Amino acid sequence: MNEKKENLAQPLRPKERVHFLDIVRGFAMLGIIIVNYFLIVDSVKGFDMDSSDLVHNLVSTFAEGKFITLFSFLFGVGFMIFMDRAVQRVEHPRKLFARRLLILFCVGLLHITFVWVGDILTFYALAGFLLLAFYARTPKTILRWIIALILIQFLAPVFMMLYNAVMKTASSDMPTYFDFTLSSHTSFTYLESFVARWADMGVMAASSFSTVYSMFLMFLIGMYFVKMDFFTTMEAKQSIWKRIWFISLAAFILTQFSSMMNTLIPAENTFWMELFMVLGQQGNLTGSMFYMSSLAMLLLYVPALRKALMVFTKVGRMSLTCYLLHSIIGTVLLLPYGFDLASSIKPIDTLMLSIAVYVVLVIIASLWLKRFNIGPMESFWRKLTYGKTNRASETTPVTLVQPLNSDLRQ
């Protein structure tokens, strides 16, 4: 028994430790592809909130909102690593990061204009500027901000509920995300969708405050994890990761239970329905942290799975390239101006298509990374950021003195 425990707790090999965040990033990309493809299909068919399909409900419960939140966490991690390196390399690291964000914003605008309205890069770029005010802050200060933002996110709707209950104000007329349709997803020609995308983006941007708020919160949590040094010598911090996993598991169960209760409570009990809905809305945060910490636990305690988990690093190292590729592939296959699969595809087929596209991206990334160290869009982003070509960093292998391998910190 003791020997078995020792085997489970054996140290991570350097290569596995270097790539942990790429594993998380690659795993998050799989979830993002699944959610985005379901979003495209649903928007073409018309959003059906009462869908009884098991696959659709599983994706809605365990994937929707969780993976984009996890990606936001990783963006905060990448910001800290980028800034730590930039401080040692350049005289004005904040200006360098600002230029990096500006380039990302322009890529996002091109993505919206020519490919898909569901772009997240522009939001990352705009919210990312807020991080510059927090780089030099202590972990304790950042933790206080995190707690304050979580409390505001939870208490604001609670106070609104209490106000509505006291003032007898109905809230049923408030607009929801599903009150609008995406006309760019129903356009029959590419030129029609080209114009419609910006009209759709205007509607989405007008209701994006909560998205940016949650995004910024996860940025700070990612920064906090780096400042607390949770990602280096992870095997020496097994007790910390175990604690993070147990806390996130309990929180995730609570939020998922609240979401379930929200559907079971009779419609006349409006207050309790709204209370459980508010608790359930925290599921994106709790779910993303649970998934991330679960990957850490698997890496630390299940050595047999480490090679399998390393598959995620391929897409993780080329996340920007793969994000743009998944949009191009998905819109061509699913939308009316392409193969129009969305009008007839079933939820199980949407899931299978998402996984198939991810496998294709793994193959493309693997072949590319055999010759180059970073993806084409990552290389483009780096060159524009630094204003010069760094060919050595593209063609030479990663050295073990680099703590992580991530496009967000290049």
Description:
This protein is globular. Helix 5 crosses helix 10 (209-227). With 410 residues, it is mainly α. Mean pLDDT is 85; it is low at 1-9, 171-179 and 389-410. The chain is built from 19 helices and no strands.
Précis, in short:
The protein has helices at residues 2-8, 14-18, 20-45, 54-62, 66-89, 93-114, 121-128, 139-167, 190-206, 209-227, 238-264, 270-280, 283-301, 306-309, 312-317, 319-334, 347-369, 376-386, 391-395. By secondary structure, it is mostly helical. The model is unreliable at 1-9, 171-179 and 389-410 (pLDDT under 50).
Beta percentage is under 5%
What is the H/E order? HHHHHHHHHHHHHHHHHHH
Shape by Cα distribution: globular
Overall mean pLDDT stands at: 85
**Low-confidence region ranges:** 1-9, 171-179, 389-410
Largest sheet: none
Label the structural class.
mainly alpha
Helix percent band: over 70%
Rg over alpha carbons: 22 Å
- Total helices: the number is 19
* Number of distinct beta strands: 0
Question: Kindly, what is the distance between the CA atoms of the first and last residues, rounded to a whole number of angstroms?
Answer: 44 Å
